[in-house]
């Protein structure tokens, strides 16, 4: 069965005075998916989510929830709920009181509230005796779970998250990323998450929307966007990358425009006579030994080696001044030394081409 659309944005524009923060966004959020909106500061993530939860109205365009137009439906009339970084828990109240709040305002009986609160404590892996504990006595991570339990107590169709983990330390963030992903699976609800952190987006999401200057630069799974970015911006945003301007000759043969590479072969999908950027991720580049061959070969000098936990990263300077980043697992460590002359090689199977028109 085709997935159903929970939220549909059609040509959504948001202006603040003369400034346009969102330029005609079209986006379908599928029922039950985990969609992350990621992008640099000021790219329009918060503006978009404020429109989706009903904290603000679009200047133009439409927002439909389950097929109904909701442009001017206020936040408290939507079946959605927002979890903020600041959490907005009631201090000096117990964990139980915080979780039960949404049920209380809906007139749910004390007995039923208590039962539901205990179910939610269990769902969020919090001990049952936390029910009577003051939230201020909980750790940062526990408070985050209480905020999530409270959001779920609203029983929203869609949960929105605005950088909920950014104030936490690295280890706790990693744990909660996995818990959130698991919670998404167990609840089956639609999660829309905004973050600066690409890593967070990649770990948790079914799909990622990358924002740039009020537009969606690309929408897709982490894998799709990582291996086939549409623009240079997306390629660089998704992690370390090496980019080379190339031209395909009328016979399809490829040549690096700055002479930095020797390329043997043609580029499938690249029209003869066109210009493009050749993209190769660092993990696909090999240090070639004497007699080794590859479709693309560049010569340079190893300038530096960095240890990145399980991997090693090398910076190799080419003669034209360009630096190539190479990544290896520890067991494939470069056998030579810093300052050595090397030949780097990779195959066209691992290359992606960004058309000239999309380079920015
Ligand atoms: P960050 O990651 O820093 O939170 P963001 O991607 O969420 O950034 P937004 O907060 O959506 O970005 O802001 C997008 C642009 O819109 C920014 O240039 C911001 O200055 C502008 N903007 C947002 N809200 C308003 C407002 N109420 N009035 C005027 N300009 C605004």
TrEMBL record:
One of its GO terms (molecular function) is ATP binding. PANTHER family: SPERMIDINE/PUTRESCINE IMPORT ATP-BINDING PROTEIN POTA, SPERMIDINE_PUTRESCINE IMPORT ATP-BINDING PROTEIN POTA. Belongs to the ABC transporter superfamily. Keywords: ATP-binding, Nucleotide-binding, Transport. Signal peptide: none annotated. GO terms for biological process: quaternary ammonium group transport. Residues 7-238 form the ABC transporter domain. PROSITE patterns: ABC_TRANSPORTER_1 (PS00211), ABC_TRANSPORTER_2 (PS50893). This is ABC transporter ATP-binding protein. GO terms for cellular component: ATP-binding cassette (ABC) transporter complex. The keyword Electron transport does not apply. InterPro entries: AAA+_ATPase, ABC_SmlMolc_Importer, ABC_transporter-like_ATP-bd, ABC_transporter-like_CS, Mo/tungstate-bd_C_term_dom, P-loop_NTPase, Transp-assoc_OB_typ2.
């Amino acid at each position: 069965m085709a997935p159903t659309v929970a939220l549909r944005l059609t040509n959504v524009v948001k202006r603040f005075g003369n400034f346009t923060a969102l330029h005609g966004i079209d986006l379908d959020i599928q029922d039950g998916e985990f969609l992350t909106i990621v992008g640099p500061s000021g790219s329009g993530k918060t503006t978009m989510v404020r429109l989706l939860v009903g904290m603000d109205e679009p200047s133009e365009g439409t927002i439909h929830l389950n097929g109904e137009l909701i442009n001017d439906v206020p936040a408290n009339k939507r079946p959605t709920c927002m979890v903020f970084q600041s959490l907005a828990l009631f201090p000096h109240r117990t964990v139980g009181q915080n979780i039960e709040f949404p049920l209380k305002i809906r007139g749910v009986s004390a007995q039923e509230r208590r039962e539901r609160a205990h179910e939610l404590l269990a769902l969020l892996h919090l001990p049952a005796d936390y029910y009577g504990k003051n939230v201020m006595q909980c750790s940062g991570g526990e408070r985050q779970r209480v905020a999530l339990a409270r959001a779920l107590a609203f029983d929203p169709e869609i949960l929105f998250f605005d950088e909920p983990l950014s104030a936490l330390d690295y280890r706790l963030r990693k744990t909660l990323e996995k818990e959130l992903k698991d919670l998404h699976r167990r609840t089956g609800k639609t999660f829309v998450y905004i973050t600066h952190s690409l890593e967070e987006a990649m770990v948790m999401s079914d799909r990622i929307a990358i924002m740039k200057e009020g537009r969606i630069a690309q929408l897709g799974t982490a894998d799709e966007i990582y291996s086939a970015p549409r623009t240079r911006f997306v390629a660089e945003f998704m992690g370390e990358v090496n980019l080379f301007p190339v031209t395909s000759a009328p016979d399809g043969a490829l040549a690096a425009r700055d002479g930095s590479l020797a390329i043997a072969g043609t580029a499938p999908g690249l029209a003869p006579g066109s210009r493009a950027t050749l993209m190769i991720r660092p993990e696909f580049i090999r240090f070639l030994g004497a007699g080794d061959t590859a479709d693309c070969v560049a010569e340079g000098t190893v300038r530096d080696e960095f240890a990145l936990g399980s991997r090693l990263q090398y910076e190799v300077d080419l003669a034209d001044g360009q630096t190539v980043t190479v990544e290896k697992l520890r067991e494939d460590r470069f056998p030579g030394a810093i300052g050595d002359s090397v030949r780097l090689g990779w195959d066209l199977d691992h290359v992606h081409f960004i058309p000239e028109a999309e380079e920015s």
